[in-house]
Amino acid sequence: MTKEIQTEVIGKLGVITLSRPKALNALTTEMCKAITKVMVDWEDDENIGAVLVKGAGDRAFCAGGDVIMLHDSGKKDGKEAAEFWRVEYALNELIHRYRKPYITMIDGIVMGGGVGLSVHGRHRVAGDDTLFAMPETGIGYFPDVGGTYFLPRLGLSVGMWLGLTGARIKTAEVCELGIANAYIPTAKHEAFVKALGKAKLDGSDAAVLDVMAKYVKEPPKADAMSGSMGAFIGETMSDIMEVLAEDESEWAQKQLSNLQKKSPIALATTHRSLREGAQMTFREAMERELDISLNFLKTQDFYEGIRAQLIDKDRKPKWSHESVGKVTKAQLERLFKKTAKPSLEFLE
């Protein structure tokens, strides 16, 4: 068991704490393996009535995965990256179909891998400082960890906006969109966990909701979504860019400027994967994501994006294409090619 996660049992509540606060609780392969093992053990343990996951420190639930490792692995043979994605995606699927109540305290930063750890579970509790984003297109990648499944189910235009732009949204919007389905003020989180530990948790959602009802408050009111959001329903990435370009509103022009800074091939991949993911089962989406992830290791933009954002930090990536219109159908098809051998292995 890695020291990067801590586990404890309080009454009939199993608690997993992501314990890398200096790294904003970003996930490693060993953390994903450890979380998986504990969750599998607890699922069949009659002394555990619910599982809760939280992040150490006050800055983040989980800010993503070990992107530098993915970069370095891809530069070599890609084996470490492939292992990480296989373990992480199988964990995402375990969370999605977990039999017992699975509760996540998504206060602070929730990005990338942290999204995969939370949004597929049944009870997602926001705090006062929740900050959600899927910023992958900015590093020449796409919103994985089940993003191709859950984003379009927020409503295709909103999900596409979040996935393509990497927009950051706070507590009010996170609750409004259903990314979190409960709001408990941060100051009450510790008391809520203790109350769950004292409750007669029996493996049912009703037992958790009985406790939650005493702590849940009305979330802050979100601003109305822009009337220009409909641009993101476009059938092609170029369609979206064109509609935004013709829209003179400040919001639309801001989105267009943002998109023009992202990797064109990452945008095209994200657009297609979200539209297709809307029609897939969760397992189908995860299997597809593994293929796409492995194929991204063969692209220039994946390394260039990570270099510019996280290694050299010059914020000036030199993408392989000048615009989305320059991405060819053949280039896009290569990213969707079946490549995972063996296919993604689920836990049951």
Structural notes for this entry:
With 348 residues, the protein is an alpha/beta fold. The protein has two domains: 5-133 and 181-212, Alpha-Beta Complex (2-enoyl-CoA Hydratase, Chain A, domain 1), CATH 3.90.226.10; 227-335, no CATH class. Helix content is 45%, strand content 11%. The chain has 15 helices and ten strands. The protein has helices at 29-43, 67-75, 79-97, 113-118, 147-150, 156-165, 171-176, 189-198, 205-212, 237-246, 250-259, 264-277, 282-296, 300-311, 329-335, and strands spanning 5-10, 13-18, 50-55, 60-62, 102-106, 109-111, 123-126, 131-133, 169-170, 182-183. Strands 1-2-3-5-7-10 form a six-stranded mixed beta sheet, sandwiched between helices. It has a four-stranded mixed beta sheet with strand order 4-6-8-9. Strand 1 (5-10) and strand 2 (13-18) form a beta hairpin. The longest helix has 19 residues, at 79-97. The protein is globular. It starts with a strand and ends in a 13-residue tail after the last helix. The model has no long low-confidence stretch (mean pLDDT 97).
